[in-house]
């Protein structure tokens, strides 16, 4: 998806934050709409049909988590949380509820812009595309074939399922629980050591330098994302 002209909806009760984001994002070619409450935000999503939503958790009429849950009943639009809540538990709760990413206030505009681009790429990749590219990493979903550069990488079935789930949600943070449930099943959703072992194995196979990964990124205490 071309980011120029992409529609961004900012749902935040702080007027100064909304003004700041409107000026900054408009300056980078985005079309920006605003909402000051959760209810207004949900209405704006239906009317405005944004490409990405920036959502504060501390809204005056309802918690941002409730906004996400209601939104996910009918919309898959990427949601980036922008909040002062910085505890891991808050991040995990928001991501498990259906948010795509989480940025804490105070924030760097450069970081937020990068997260918006990642969310837009994820949305663009939700079409039925059988081959996914991440620079030198290629994942052929139809053939279940993974290559790095010109070299085919041999993965175990579990390694492949883990990589596939991350690839289909490229740029999005997937929590430990979400990945464990998707790959191993609900009874294993607390077995975080499984993930650490398999992520380590995947990095040794797909990263040029496993100790400084470019593709498989750790979100400390929360989960992983593929870039």
TrEMBL record:
The keyword Cytoplasm applies. Gene3D superfamilies: 3.40.50.2300, 6.10.250.690, Winged helix-like DNA-binding domain superfamily/Winged helix DNA-binding domain. The keyword Acetylation does not apply. The modification 4-aspartylphosphate is found at residue 56. GO terms for biological process: positive regulation of DNA-templated transcription. GO terms for cellular component: cytosol; protein-DNA complex. GO terms for molecular function: cis-regulatory region sequence-specific DNA binding; identical protein binding; phosphorelay response regulator activity. This is Stage 0 sporulation protein A homolog. It comes from Thermanaeromonas toyohensis ToBE.
